[in-house]
Amino acid sequence: MKKTVLTLAIIWMAATGSIAQTKTSNTATWVVESNLNHPGIQTVRFYDSDKHLIYTETIKARINVSNKKVQRKLNSMLDILMTTGKPVNDSNLLAASFKVKKN
Q1: What is the annotated signal peptide range for this record (predicted)?
Q2: Which of these, 23, 30, 39, 71, is most buried using a 10 Å CB contact count?
């Protein structure tokens, strides 16, 4: 009986300790913005881990961000931008990736 109570107490303490830890987010992100007045035009902004804008592009297409394929493309674009370590001068980077016209 003592062993089971002691074992349960140890498991309980380990579980509550792991729940109490907060996850810090030091990752880069992307944001897709659209306008109600111009629904066919969307702006995609990429931010680094310090939340500084590293790249922005406006394209003439609707991007469905709930689609996993689109998320993978945007994440791969973000990885490319983060590995270069500097702002990109090519303004058609995203339009070429999605094969759409730039605004």
Answers
A1: 1-20
A2: 30
